[in-house]
Specification:
There is one protein chain. This protein is an alpha/beta fold and about 350 residues long. It has 3 domains: about 45 residues, lambda repressor-like DNA-binding domains (434 Repressor (Amino-terminal Domain)); about 150 residues, Rossmann fold; about 140 residues, Response regulator (Rossmann fold, 3-Layer(aba) Sandwich). Helix content is about 45%, strand content about 15%. It contains 15 helices and 12 strands. It has a 6-stranded parallel β-sheet, with helices on both faces. The chain has a 4-stranded parallel β-sheet with strand order 7-6-8-9, sandwiched between helices. Strands 10-12 form a two-stranded antiparallel sheet. The longest helix has 17 residues. The radius of gyration is 23 Å and the shape is elongated. The N and C termini lie far apart (about 65 Å). About 5% of the residues have low confidence.
Length: about 350
Amino acid sequence: MSAPTVYDVAERAQVSIATVSRVYRNPDTVRATTRERVLAVARELGYVPSGNARGLASRTTGVLGLCFPDYADPEVDNPEDSSDDAADDPEHMLYADEITRGMERAARRHGYALLIAASLAGGPESLVAKVAGRVDGFAVLARTVPTEDLEIISRRLPIVMIAGPREIDHLDHLQVANDDGEYELTRHLIADHGLTRLAYISGGEDSPDATARFAGFQRALADSGLPVPGEPDIRGNFTQADGRAAAQRLLDAAGAVPQALVCANDQMAVGALQTMERRGIRVPQDVAVVGFDGIPLGRVVRPSLTTVSQPMRRLGETAVDLLVERLRDPDREPRSVLLPVSQTRRHSCGCP
């Protein structure tokens, strides 16, 4: 069965071909009711906008795509030193930056370019439209694009899902050992440092990584015979500002300062360190603070940050390898890859 074309969408939606084109290229120029009708028909037919002329002729573009939500942290993206050198400083590299670096490296090795869509400002349909028709395959960070849209796109393009649970069985899937990593770090705080009053600062409820990490935290408490909370103490949005505010709220609400703050990522942990310093609470003497990810910033804050280091660049590299494998062998069985994590013990937990 041949792939649906712009003509099929236009006929079914009872609009002109030009209108279909504008829906994808300049959606704001099309009335909302018309735009929604065209997008609904496109989803029903499994239509994906075509790429450039080269793609039309050869059905390949030589480009791979990466889609992820814009989790930018303004305090890291725009440091006080706003020079170009500071903006490129490896110490300011965050989670998505490291994955992108890994994908770029692997794409070059395989002879591909990389196209990045890192914002949801135009909505999931806009994101898919911008990327899917211009690439040979793409990697998508969990919860970036609705599952039903991914199902449609996957009929024509290889897709690798990064992070989160495996929601679509026939797609290649890639994640790190979030649960085990948080479990081992929490056990380190309990068994090696004797800490028993631990508070948890989590990411949003819609983050599969945050959910898995909190599950590891709960499991470690249970295995240690400690009370297990049903929910995190505080939720944030993975930024330094959220970590700072969450720690402030936690300290204001708590009758006693917890012995440790376990943060779902390093950026929030850095924010928590800032709150502790401003409140005159010593880390790690009065309270331990730990994170997750292993971003370079954790090495240079004071005290240096104990964390779970995940192989962020390897995530990007492996995503490209899986895409290239799928392009070379479209009928191979889907793969699910779990990458290991490791503890990086520094001063913020009380280690030397």
